[in-house]
Amino acid sequence: MLKRKIEQKLIDWKNAKEHKPLIIKGCRQCGKTFSVLEFAKNNYKNVVYLNFFENPDYASVFSGSLEIDNIIMMLSALLGKGAVFEAGETVLILDEIQECPEARTALKFFQLDGRFDVIGTGSLLGVKGYGKEPRSVPVGYETVIDMYPLDFEEFLWANDIGEPIINMLRKCLEEAKPVQEAIHNKMRQLLLQYTVVGGMPDVVQTFVNTKQMNDVLSIQRDIIRSYEDDMVKYAEKADKSRIKECFQSIPKQLSKENKKFQYAVIKKGSTASKYMGSLQWIEDAGIISRCYNLSITELPLDGNAIEDVFKVYMKDCGLFISMLEDGTQYDILQGKLYGYKGAIFENLIADIFSKMGRKLYYYHKDSGLEIDFVMRYKGECTLVEVKATNGNTKSTRTILNHPEKYHVKSAIKLGDYNVGNENQILTLPLYMAFLLDKM
Predict the structure, then answer these.
(1) Could you give the angle at which helices 213-234 and 240-248 cross, rounded to 10 degrees?
(2) How big, in percent rounded to 5, are the helix, strand and coil portions of the chain?
(3) How far apart, in whole angstroms, are the C-alpha atoms of residue 339 and residue 351?
(4) Is residue 1 part of a domain?
(5) Whether residues 225 and 304 fall in one domain
(6) Which of 353, 357, 356 is nearest to 345 (CA)?
(7) Which domain, by its residues, includes 391?
(8) Is ATP-binding one of the keywords UniProt gives this record (predicted)?
(9) 139 and 165 housed in the same domain
(10) Same domain, 259 and 391
(11) Contact 146, 357 (CB under 8 A)
């Protein structure tokens, strides 16, 4: 069974005094239902489970009075012995809650009542054209947690890399000293595997059990097809084809030298006004992350982001690789990256950063200055360069040499080498990106 970080978040939520009903948001097939059910089974005497996607009839329970005693009575009649409500001992799980907006509204009344814990999960919450809006979103009466596919650290756990090794890597980072060669090489290998496998739970479990990359690719492409089916099934009629075209353009967008997202790449003559909503739909579904260009390298980053100039990355790097041509997996595992190497490793680092909850930013000026990522690290504005091999850091050095203009004193270069220092630039192996979590 895959160990997930959401497990600790669920325990912390339960242990918090007067906790509110919980909503777990995340893209389809990232493991929400499994994690919530495992947690419920291990922490509650009674578990009442409703899946509104599989059983649309359950929505009728919430169509009338939302008084909690009435809901309990209706569920007891509907589920029989499957609905035991005992104050302080029962959790109600509302799976795919976006299918029943009234159930989302009812969270306020569960919070005010206080006898039972409630956890809702949703894949397409807030996505335009999906279902009806709740009568009232229970603002202030619910806690929302974003869940992602497995991140690189969770992938390491799945591959028997435990806390002692991870702590040793963290110590090497803090002391800026090289990682022991055997471990360094093992981590490089695992990173390449994560690049092609990614973090969708079914994909990771298949990889761990079989190491069969053709099976991995087959599952990934099934997931991509299911995302495309969602776009056709749930989007508003006028948007259906545009959303799919937008999504399918992502590999092309990332292969360009100028990686800024360009609507014209989707289809010749396309404009922002035509496709802006389509891109937003894909982002709201949890499939992609945007990385915004900064007007200046200065904190706060969000306040200096240029709203209409951005790159787009797939939230899960394994799914991105599966969208490329056959044979790409093999090339990456062999270290033969050819023309896609920049796009592949940038998407990998975007995957790692976004799954730790970071918003993504970069810096590009027409003068030629370009920094792959800019982030807040240890309270400072920090440049991050991503290099498949050694690569030059001309832009980084230009910025560091003019602190009065750019307000930056630190930079990190991620690449295929061990830990070291190069004149103000901390050089780290790509696999250490997951340790850069100190905001």
Answers:
(1) 150
(2) 50, 15, 35
(3) 20
(4) no
(5) yes
(6) 353
(7) 152-435
(8) yes
(9) no
(10) yes
(11) yes
Residue 395 lies in a domain: yes
Q: Give the rounded distance of the alpha carbon of 76 from its chain centre.
A: 37
Q: Which amino acid is at 185?
A: N
Q: Output the CA angle 416-421-426, nearest 5 degrees.
A: 70
**pLDDT at residue number 234:** 75
264, 270 in Cβ contact below 8 A? yes
Last residue of a domain, one of 124, 146, 168: 146
Distance CA 199, CA 219 (A): 12
Residues 165 and 112 in one domain: no
Q: In a 3-state reduction of DSSP, which class is residue 360?
A: strand
CA dihedral 9, 12, 16, 21 (to 10 degrees): 30
Q: How far is CA 46 from CA 42, 84, 308, 361, 393, in A?
A: 10, 6, 49, 45, 58
Domain end marker among 117, 146, 175: 146
Pairing of strands 117-122, 22-25: parallel
Distance separating alpha carbons of residues 355 and 373, to the nearest angstrom: 15
Q: Is residue 100 domain-shared with residue 175, that is, in the same domain?
A: no
What is the C-alpha separation between 258 and 293, in angstroms, rounded? 13
Rg of the chain over all Cα atoms, to the nearest angstrom: 23
How many structural domains are present in the chain?
2
pTM: 0.94
Could you tell me the mean pLDDT of each successive run of 10 residues in the chain, 439 residues long?
A: 96 96 95 97 97 94 95 95 94 94 95 97 72 67 95 98 97 96 97 97 98 97 94 81 93 80 90 91 94 96 96 96 92 77 89 97 92 95 86 88 92 94 90 94
d(CA 258, CA 80): 60
CA distances from 377 to 1, 174, 300, 424 (A): 33, 13, 12, 15
Q: How would you classify residue 176: left for phi > 0, otherwise alpha for psi between -120 and 50, otherwise beta?
A: left
Q: What is the DSSP letter of 64?
A: S
CB distance 21 to 111 below 8 Å: yes
- Does 309 share its domain with 402? yes
- 381 lies in the same domain as 331: yes
Peptide bond connecting 149 to the previous residue in cis, omega within 30 degrees of 0: no
Q: How far apart are CA 101 and CA 59, in angstroms?
A: 9
